[in-house]
User: Which sequence fits this backbone?
C-alpha cells in the first residue's frame, strides 16, 4: 500500500524533537515527539513555491519486567536466572510492553495519518540475547490499497525478532 506519495523537495529541511524517559525499578516509561518540515521551493507549475511537506509524530510506551529485574537506561536488563551461562540455569527475564504511536504527513493538499497500538513481550535469555514478540494493530486514516480483507484501513502484523548484543 502507499501511505503517502513521494514528493519532490527543494530547500531547507528542519527537524525538532524531544524525548522523555522515566525508569523506576522494573518499570520504564518513554515518550518522544518529532516534527519535520521539508521546503519545496520553485517546484510549482510556474516555478513558484509549493507548500512544504510536514511530518508530525509521537509515541508513548511503557514496559514492566515481570521477573523483578531493574530496568537499566541504555542497556538490556541482567536476568537474575539466565537460560544459558555459568551457575544455576533459569527462565531468563520476562518483560511486558505496550506502545502507542501516531504519524501524520501533509503537503498542503493531501494528508494521511496512521495510529499504531503495539502490545508485546520481551524474553531476555541472557544479558546478551533477547527474543521480542510484537503485535501491531495499525489504523490508516485514508487507506489507499489494503493487502487483506479487514476493516478499512486496519493492518495487523506480528513480529518476532531475535537480537544478539556484542
Assistant:
Amino acid at each position: 500500500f502507499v501511505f503517502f506519495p513521494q514528493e519532490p523537495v527543494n530547500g531547507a529541511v528542519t527537524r525538532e524533537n524531544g524525548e522523555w524517559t522515566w525508569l523506576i525499578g522494573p518499570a520504564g516509561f518513554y515518550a518522544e515527539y518529532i516534527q519535520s518540515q521539508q521546503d519545496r521551493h520553485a517546484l510549482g507549475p510556474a516555478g513558484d513555491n509549493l507548500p512544504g511537506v510536514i511530518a508530525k509524530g509521537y509515541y508513548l510506551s511503557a514496559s514492566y519486567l515481570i521477573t523483578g529485574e531493574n530496568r537499566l537506561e541504555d542497556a538490556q536488563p541482567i536476568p537474575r536466572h539466565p537460560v544459558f551461562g555459568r551457575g544455576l540455569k533459569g527462565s531468563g527475564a520476562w518483560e511486558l510492553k505496550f506502545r502507542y504511536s501516531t504519524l501524520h504527513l501533509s503537503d498542503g493538499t493531501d494528508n494521511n495519518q496512521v495510529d499504531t497500538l503495539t502490545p508485546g513481550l520481551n524474553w531476555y535469555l541472557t544479558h546478551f540475547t533477547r527474543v521480542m514478540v510484537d503485535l501491531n494493530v495499525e489504523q490508516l486514516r485514508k487507506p489507499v490499497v489494503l493487502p487483506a480483507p479487514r476493516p478499512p484501513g486496519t493492518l495487523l502484523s506480528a513480529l518476532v525478532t531475535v537480537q544478539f548484543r556484542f
Notes: The radius of gyration is 21 Å. Residues 33 and 96 are 23 Å apart (CA to CA). The mean pLDDT is 89.
